[in-house]
Amino acid sequence: MSLSTQQLAAQKNLSYVLAEKIAQRILKGEYAAGSILPGEMELGDLFGVSRTAVREAVKTLAAKGMLLPRPRIGTRVMPRSHWNFLDKELIAWWMTKDNFSHVVEEFLIMRNSLEPQACALAAINSNEQQRTRLTQLMAQMTELQTAFDRQRWIEVDMAYHELIYEMSGNPFMTSFANLFRSIYYNYFTAITDNEVIKLDLHQAIVDAIAKGEGQAAFNACLALLKEPVTHR
Question: Which residue has the higher pLDDT, 8 or 130?
Fold first, then answer.
């Protein structure tokens, strides 16, 4: 008898939960790189799941570069250099409370490399509608200076930066912003206190983009990213 749609969905969800549990053990080093993962029966007994769920979980992690199943050898845990850190699920599993600072540190290195270039391209490639939208977002940020709402600031600040990546006209940069949205959100939440952040530097980026001055937009973004966040 074939499995019903509901049973298949439950099986898929179970294998995903198992994949996350195994991934967390790999991330913590409990299953070290180069080691052979316990067999299907042992993992099934350990986590209280079927061998089918184990196989599906292994397939999920293999697709992310974390595991390499080999016939008659077993499933090997792969080194981090093989992992796909552009995978949304892997990012979510990696970004635990204990790892948050490290994940953000690695993320900011990439952001600092890409966002100034996105601003420069936005000054050249954006259209009038996009520039108008950016100006509107900047106006909303300015309004929050006198009537601050922390959650609203986070939302507008995120929309501002995501729009700039879109304005760059580069599909890879747009995908970057979409892919790392969860990290952006958690980072902005962590740095936002009870006041607007670097309002003048955000405005400088908007002004440079509006004038079509790519280098000025690049420099303004560098200034924004380099200036530390301070709270009164």
Answer: 130
Taking the model in full, what pTM does it have? 0.79
Reduce the DSSP state of residue 185 to 3 states and report it.
helix
Cα three-residue angle 37-23-107, rounded to 5 degrees:
135
Q: What is the mean pLDDT of the chain?
A: 92
* Mean of pLDDT values over 92-113: 90
Structure token digits, residue 131: 């520039």
Going by C-beta distance under 8 Å and a sequence separation of 6 or more, which residues neighbour residue 39? 74
Domains, the chain, with CATH or none: 5-88 (1.10.10.10), 98-226 (1.20.120.530)
Looking at residue 9, its pLDDT comes to: 58
The closest alpha carbon to 116, from 197, 183, 214, 188, belongs to 214
Backbone angles phi, psi at 198, to 5 degrees: 50, 50
Residue 126 to residue 180: CA distance in whole angstroms: 22
